[in-house]
Protein 1
Amino acid sequence: MSWINNYIAFKKNKSSGKCPKCGSDKVRVKEISCGRNSVSFFCDGCGDFRHFDECLTKDDNRP
């Protein structure tokens, strides 16, 4: 299992899932919607994490 499965589950039903490294269910999720949408997963059990960037938002001022 990998963090991509957590990402897919989160996008479908806002479930953070379990850590793919240690199996802990103590996974926190942080969404950021400023400039570039992104989602980060943090395992409080083992400290592993993963960050996923999504598309640019319409308020992004880059050309």
Protein 2
Amino acid sequence: MTEFLGQIVDFINSTNVPQQISEVDAKGLFTNTWFLVPLIVFVCYNLYKQAMNTLVLTGLGFGLWIFSGSRYMEGLVVGDQLQLVKVLPVVGVFIGAIAIAIYFLFMRSD
């Protein structure tokens, strides 16, 4: 199993996916019509279907993506040291996100 996961990690690193994710231009992405039109269609379709679980989880994903790229997260590691003062709020945000996801996936039904 370790060999298999090692091959996957090597593949992801060889394609520079982590670097591409860290260098995403969110403003450019949300002003690009090739991204914005399908996103609007997706949201309108889910509103029509009244699929609130899908909409909430999509919003949660976008929110976590924006939070992970915020200035607060940039200041989490200064040099090679983790700033312990900033860890608790980050853990709180992600525990809250996991709680919301669990609620909408397992406890609430459409």
Protein 3
Amino acid sequence: MVDDNAWSPPKRRNGIWWIVLSGLLLPAGWIAWLLVALAGYNGVDSSNRSLSAQTLGDVVVTVMCAGVPLTGVVVLLVQRRRDRSVTLVGPVACAVFAVLAAGTLGYPTTGVAKSWAADAERRAQPLTELETSRTQTESEQDLAGVGELAVRALGEDVRSRDVVQVTLECPLSNLQEGTQYMWRWSVPSDPKAEPQTDSERQADRLPADEVERRLAPVRQVFREAGLRDADPYGWDIRALGDDWLAEANATVTRSSGDVMLETTCLAGGPGNGYDDE
């Protein structure tokens, strides 16, 4: 016969539901953080808007993943003060999950927040004097002037059909939209011409001393324009600059010649809020 009045130890309460919830939230938070980061990278060239949204999303994920187990720690400790059957297993486990969440999610979230702050500060800066030094008309005229000098130094005539002028969008120092101007002269410019075979390209090449002799005046034009020699990267001449003229290239063969120049990113262009004067 069992004695109903026999003593039995009190049932221990480990806060198992807080532990399970905290344990499930942590990997879910990692996945959510990665999804928010991917959404931010798919934004418009990591713009201030996408960075702010990414920072906000990361903060929400981090607060939830670290806040829930931290809440479990507080709740279980308060319950333990009132009821000694509540063990320390739950608070300790929840504390571990809170630390893991703060470390694995909080640290990268801080990095994103710093990038957002730096991006916002950069966008608040005024445009540089160089970026506003030329209007669209001045940029195109000055670029064409240097290009035509280089072509004449090559011993060729500048014909309109051999010249291509294009503009490209580019980010200014404060990440506003700017314009880069390009000018290119090349002959022959027949779009219907058949591509050269390897043997034809080899036969079309000039000896190195002949290339240098023909391009030496062009190199001098580039230097007088404020450019310095650089590795050619497929061109016979490549020059770089730190002023409005950013790069110039030239090459020559027995049957063709090519001169290309481009400006730095300038504010004086269509659609960027800096009008021609």
